[in-house]
Each structure stands twice: as structure tokens, then as C-alpha cells.
Amino acid sequence: MKRSQVPSTWVSVDQAVKWPARTQCFAPTVKRSNPIKPRLFPQNFTSAASQRQQLFESESSRSRSDFRNERSSLLNRVRIVPASPSYFTAKPTFTDSLLELQALLRKYQTLPLTPPGTAPQVAWKTLAQWQAANGDEPVKPSKYGRILSALYRLNQIHPQLMPEEVQIALDKNKKDFNPYEIKTKPSFLDRFGRAYGVGRRKTSSARAWVVEGEGDVLINGKNLAGMFGRIHDRESAVWPLKVTDRMDKYNVWALVEGGGVTGQAEALTLAISQALIVHEPLLKSALRQAGCVTRDRRRVERKKPGHVKARKMPAWVKR
After folding, report:
1. How confident is the model at residue 34 (pLDDT cuts 50, 70, 90)?
2. Which UniProt keywords apply (predicted)?
3. pLDDT of 26 above 90
């Protein structure tokens, strides 16, 4: 359709839409004499800043204690708080124990210590005992050694200045029975002036009674030469008297049993030494230097299967 064929009258937009797609139409803007005025209603608008201000004013009116109580009660209802910060570690009990001891070390590291070798002897719990008392946590011996090192260091604090909390930590890791507190009963001379001593070596045991005399020695009712044929065994039996130059000042009556000749002679050495110390306590240092006071606990090592002896192996043959 040509431009000259467009109707002279204006049509509405709805009528123009019904025309064919290729038909061009002109929809003029409708002008109103009285424009529509919007009706305005008063409303109260609040911004985010004003909301925060109102919340702050309402919270500030309450006391701090009430706010903390409400917050703590809310947290208790929402989640369970672990009793220890080490709860999420692999070994919480071990970690807590180690951190507690290390904190005590840092706190009391300036306190005076006892002189070397004079600290109280304490028997600490073994790793198995510590695990049994703390829920059987899988702790390596090297890790438990760190706890023992801290305990040794805290135990060196002077007893007169020992803090109470340190003493509680030490008592918690001690054994129920302390073998170092056992004191041997002092020996005395009997009404006949005799001193008694006991000695052991390998499977042999000896009991000796020593009294002042002229140097007589009877062992199982026999003299020294009749009991021990070897000179070395004779010297071993009376070595405490010989090293202290008391051979002609004391008489010895002894009973030995078990083991062999060498074991009986060395068991008699320890028995005579103990009895001699009862007569003259000042000889203990000299006898200790001579090796007559300390018991020799060595034993013969057993033979193993496939070995010629305890450790000897048969000759290896390639073919």
C-alpha cells in the first residue's frame, strides 16, 4: 500500500495491530489534559544503619552480666564445647599432661635446685602403668620420655621451696610403692659378739658368722684348704679379710650350699664382707673399692637352638 492510501483519520493502537504486517501505521502519542496524579501515603522507612543503632541502644540498656549469661546459655544449647583444647589431637590425655608439666617448668624454672646427686629418689610410673591410668592411649616410649624428663627436672627443686601444685603433679606420676624408701634393718652383734652376713653368687648361697678371734676359718665343718682345692677359690673366700688386713683378728664360721666351687667361694666373699662391716663400719669404703660389697648378678647365658654354645655358631659351608 502506498503512502497516499493511508486513511486520513487517526486510529487506535489496537486497530493498527490488526493491519497486515507490511502495512505501516502511525500511532501518535495521546496527550491528556489532566494528567493522573499519584496518591502518596506516608510510610516509615528504616535504613540498615538505623536498625543497628536501635539494636545497640536496646542491648546497652541491659547489663553486661545478663548478656553474657544469655550468650553462654545459648552456646550450651547450640553446641557441646570440649573439656580440653587437646580434644582434637591424636592423644589428648598425653598432650594435656605434657603441656601441664611444661607450664610448671616455665613457671618455676628460677627456683633453686638441690645439689647434684641429692634429689629424692622416686620410682616413676612405667609406660604401661601410665597408659592403664589414662585410658590406654597409644603413646610411644620416646614420647613418654618427654614426660619423664620434665618430672626429673621438677623433682630437682629444693624440697623446702617445692610449690604445692608441683608436688601434686609429681605425686600423680609416682608409683604406688616406692622401693627407694625401703631401709634395710641395721645389723647388730648378738650376745656372743657374732656378726651375721649373707651372700649369693649364681645358684650358690652362703651364710657367715664372724667373731673376734685368731683367724680360724671353718666352712661346712672343714678348713679352708679342705673346702676349696684351688688357691684362687681360697683367696676369693677370705678376700675381705685379706684386703683389710684382718686375717688374724677374726674367726669365721660359714655354711655354703648350691652351685659349684667358684660360686660358693664368691658367695662367701659377700657374706664375710657384710659381717665384717657390722664389726667395723668404717671399712665399707675400702671393701667397696675392692669389689666385696656389690653383688655380682651375672649368670651363664643359656644355649640357643642351632648354636654350638650360647653364641657360637657352626661353621658356614657354602656347598
Report:
1. low
2. Ribonucleoprotein, Ribosomal protein
3. no
- Entry pTM: 0.53
| pLDDT tens figures, 58-100 | 656 555 666 667 766 766 666 677 888 888 888 999 999 999 9
The answer to whether residues 262 and 228 touch, using CB atoms and an 8 Å cutoff, is: no
Q: CA–CA distance from 111 to each of 104, 148, 154, 261 (Å)?
A: 11, 19, 10, 56
| Residue 52: per-residue pLDDT | 61
Residue linked to cell 653368687: 201
Please give the helix or strand (H or E) that residue 198 lies within, else none: strand 195-201
- Cα separation, 26 vs 30, in Å, equals 12
For the chain, list the domains and their CATH numbers. 92-181 (no CATH), 195-289 (3.30.230.10)
Per-residue HEC secondary structure of 232-263 comes to HHHHHHCHHHHHCCCCCCEEEEEEEECCCHHH
Q: What secondary structure letter does DSSP report for 290? A: T
